[in-house]
Design a protein that fits this description.
Number of helices: 7
CATH architecture: 3-Layer(aba) Sandwich
CATH topology: Arginase, Chain A
Strand content: 15-25%
Radius of gyration: 16 Å
Shape: globular
Distance between the termini: 11 Å
InterPro entries: Agmatinase-rel, Ureohydrolase, Ureohydrolase_dom_sf, Ureohydrolase_Mn_BS
Keywords: Hydrolase, Manganese, Metal-binding
Strand order of the largest sheet: 2-1-3-8-7-4-5-6
Protein name: Agmatinase
Helix content: 25-40%
Order of helices and strands: EHEHEHEHEHEEHEH
GO molecular function, one term: agmatinase activity
Bound molecules: manganese (II) ion
Binding site for Mn(2+): 87, 110, 112, 114, 188, 190
Length: 260
Amino acid sequence: MKDIVIQGINWDAKSSFQRGPAKAPDLIRKALYSDSMNLYTELGVSIENDAITDKGDFAINEYFDIETITKKNIESGSKLLTLGGDHSITFPIIKAFNEHYPKLDILHIDAHADLYHDYEGDPFSHACPFARIMENGFAVKLVQVGIRTLNPHQAAQAKKYNVDVHEMRNLDLNAIPKFENPLYISLDMDGFDPAFAPGVSHHEPGGLSSRQVLDLIHSIDTEVVGADIVEYNPDRDFHDMTAYLAAKMMKEFLGKLMGN
Ligand code: MN
Ligand code: MN
C-alpha cells in the first residue's frame, strides 16, 4: 500500500463572500477523533493504520505556497488527503499532482462549477479553480456532480473544457461514468444540501444527501490518489453538524485512498 499523507491548509483568502474555512482542518480532526464515532469506514476498514501520516496544519502566506507544501508532502510518492480551506486550494494542489500524475481524472462534488474565467478580477478566486485546472490540461476528465448554479458563462466554460456536468435538477448517479486514470476527488461541502451541511458560506438548497455522496464514493472502483474536503465554514455551522459530516467523509476518503 502507498503511504498516505494528511495536510491541513489554513487558507480562505480567496473566498468571495465569507471567511471561515481557514479554521476548518483542526475542527474536522477534532470531530473525527472525538468519542462520537469509531475509526472504521462503512466498508469495515480501520483508519488507524501506520501508512497514514498527518503532517498537521500549514499556515499560508502566499497562494502558491500551497503548491510548494503539497509538492513536498507528495514527493516520495505518497497519496494525499487535504483538509481545506476554501476551494481555491485545489488548483495549486492539482498543479503539484501533475508532476506525478500527468494523466489524472477528477471527480468534483459541489453546488457550483467553479469554472469562472475570473471572479471579480481574480483568476485564482475560489470560483475559478477548475477553469485553471482545465486550461492547463491538468485533468484528462473532469466530472462534476451536484451542480445547481450554472449561469451562461459557466455553461460555456463547461462546454469549452469538455466538462461532464451532472446537475442536481436531473441527477442520475448511475449515469456517472467509470474513471480510467488515477482519480482525485474534490469535495466542496456545499455540494451537500444545506440541510445536511449548514456550515458553508454559500447555502444553495436542492443539493445532495449525505447518503448519495457516500454511495457515490463507495461506487468508485479505480485507484484514488488524492482527495480534498473544502469550504467547511465553522462560523456558519449548527451543533457541529457539518464538522461531523466532513469527519465522516474524511474517514471514507482515507478508506478509498487505502484501496478499499
Ligand atoms: Mn467549490
Ligand atoms: Mn461550492
